[in-house]
Specification:
Layout (H helix, E strand, L loop, with lengths): L1 H27 L1 E5 L14 E5 L9 E5 L5 E8 L5 E4 L2 E4 L2 E3 L5 H6 L8 E2 H5 L8 E5 L9 H4 L2 E2 L3 E10 L5 E2 L2
Keywords: Hydrolase, Membrane, Protease, Transmembrane, Transmembrane helix
Main location: membrane
Family: Belongs to the peptidase S26 family.
């Protein structure tokens, strides 16, 4: 009888430790998220399951997950970092006056008869010339149908959950994304 109680206790401890480790990993290191909507197409599809790295510091053109003002999480691409000026002119991205190619938009640009991204400056959207310290400016890849920095302004780094570049479900679509 004592041996059965001891074995039961050992299994219970192992189970509790496993649950504790899973919780720590889930809340502090990595977490799954489901893409909801078409704002990141063609890079990401509605219903894709992705792994979010919560330990990563976002860099330019990374895909990030953040808490949006509507009490839901958004998935967008980092365009502007603190101190950057951002401008779109003639469907081309300029950061700090320098032109940047966006190869992830090529598929949609070839399909659209007009500009994919209408002209704008960060100052026109936010009233500030540069992205403030501790904030980022984000855009969806599906520029014609994305609620992003052009609508919500800059995003505080405190609201960023993490970056993501791994689609793990559905299995047939498993891939790394740029």
């Amino acid at each position: 009888m004592a041996k059965e109680k001891n074995e039961f206790w050992e299994w219970t401890k192992a189970f509790l430790i496993a649950i504790g480790l899973a919780a720590i990993i889930r809340y502090f290191i990595i977490a799954p998220i489901v893409v909801d909507g078409e704002s990141m197409m063609p890079t990401l599809n509605n219903g894709d399951w992705m792994m979010v790295n919560k330990m990563d510091t976002p860099e330019r053109f990374d895909i990030v997950v953040f808490h949006a003002p509507e009490n839901k999480d958004y998935i967008k691409r980092v365009i502007g970092l603190p101190g950057d000026t951002v401008e779109y002119k003639d469907d081309k991205l300029y950061i700090n006056g320098k032109y940047y190619e966006e190869p992830y938009l090529d598929e949609y640009k070839s399909q659209e008869p007009g500009p994919l991204t209408p002209d704008f400056t960060l100052e026109e959207i936010t009233g500030r010339k540069t992205v403030p310290e501790g904030e980022i400016f984000v855009l969806g890849d599906n520029r014609l149908y994305s609620k992003d920095g052009r609508h919500i302004g800059t995003v505080s780094m405190d609201e960023v959950v993490g970056s993501t570049n791994v689609v793990f479900w559905p299995l047939g679509n498993m891939r790394l994304v740029d």
